[in-house]
Design brief:
Layout lengths: L25 H6 L5 H12 L8 H11 L7 H9 L7 E10 L2 E8 L9 E4 H7 L1 H11 L2 E5 L2 E5 L3
Antiparallel strand pairs: 1-2, 2-3, 4-5
Helix pairs in contact: 3-4, 5-6
């Protein structure tokens, strides 16, 4: 009898956009050209300014399109730049679960931001990646249950 050979588990490579413009291929440079010094300074000012609360690609892009259209920074350029930045925000508490666009979300409070107007709504999928222990503890404590009611997602939890 022959031994069964064990096939090692194959994991797909992590696909992270390169942050160094010198490491970009020609195709990537055409899709997202490197940022100029002025563009980089604008992104740094927006991202590191505690008053703006701009920490996601889409919120930064929307702000730039509205207030700095001359800078001509694309979403992809912002994504590449953000990938190289340290994570600034820390969740201080999960406020409540909710449904948004028929998907599970949570309202989240951030460290250093006490006003309710600074709470944000974050997708459950992303929070499971970023703060899995905190989210699972909250779900267990509040007995959070997401369920389908027909074709609509609903949430039930202890308040």
């Amino acid at each position: 009898m022959s031994k069964k050979s064990q096939i090692p588990e194959m994991k797909p490579p992590l696909l992270q956009p390169p942050t160094n413009p010198n490491n970009l291929s020609k195709e990537q440079r055409l899709i997202a050209p490197p940022l100029s010094k002025a563009q980089t300074e604008l992104l740094q000012n927006l991202y590191y300014n505690n008053n703006t609360m701009l920490h996601s690609r889409d919120s930064i892009f929307k702000h730039i399109k509205t207030n700095h259209p001359e800078s001509k920074i694309s979403r992809r350029q912002i994504a590449y730049w953000l990938n190289g930045q340290p994570y600034l925000m820390k969740v201080s508490k999960i406020v409540q679960p909710l449904i948004k666009n028929n998907e599970a979300h949570y309202e989240v409070a951030w460290s250093g931001y006490r006003k309710k107007s600074h709470y944000t709504v974050e997708p459950r999928k992303q929070l499971l990646k970023d703060i899995p222990k905190m989210l699972n503890a909250y779900d267990k404590q509040k007995n959070v249950k997401f369920y389908n009611n027909g074709n609509r997602l609903r949430v039930k939890y202890d308040e």
